[in-house]
Amino acid sequence: MAYDLEEQESLAEIKAWWEKWGNLILSVVTVCCLAVAAYQGWRWYQMKQSADAGALYAQMIQANNLDDKDRVQRIASRLCEDYSSTVYAGLSALLGARSAENANNPTRAEELLSWVVNSDDHPELQAVAAVRMAGIQLDQGKYDQALASLNRIKDPAGQEGFINDRKGDIELAMGQNDLARKSWELALKNLDASNPLVRLIEIKLQALPKANSQ
Q1: pLDDT > 70: what percent of the chain?
Q2: How do residues 100-120 score in pLDDT, each as one tens digit?
Q3: Nearby residues of 117 by Cβ (< 8 Å), 6 or more positions away
Q4: Most exposed of 36, 133, 161, 174 (fewest Cβ within 10 Å)?
């Protein structure tokens, strides 16, 4: 096909422009395509991880219902090691800790709860895990460690009532009645009146000697 002079000039300009910018454009397009592919691949991987973890957690619940404590611990370990970023890992650590407590294995329970507290993937479970860990340490007479566990909670928002209730239990065990009173009173301020824990805290307060009488 023959081109007139004007068309030939335009084609020459396009050719020159492409020679100058073509490689860059192809590189940018390639990078964008790879980024999209990588994102889609990551999404698929995350979905598969979540699905596999969910299936394992279902097996863990079944094992717990059958009181198969060894299998519960094996699954908990696998979820925490291989599926740590999924919500099921955090839940499995809590369930595994409860199973370990029932098996009179506080060391294993502390290990799993500490994993939750130290994990950046499960901030929503951190306070629950820390309060439970403090309870285990309290039962063992590790009062300073129990208080330290509560102090490790990064975001206590919404859990202040439970945290201060446990703190009061520890302070009472340490003979610090006035501090226990303050912690329980603070716990009541942060709990809804319908919470069943409220009545228990009120009973604890009533059982305390009067302030400054120790």
Answers
A1: 77
A2: 999 999 999 999 999 999 988
A3: 126, 129, 130, 133, 149, 152, 153
A4: 36
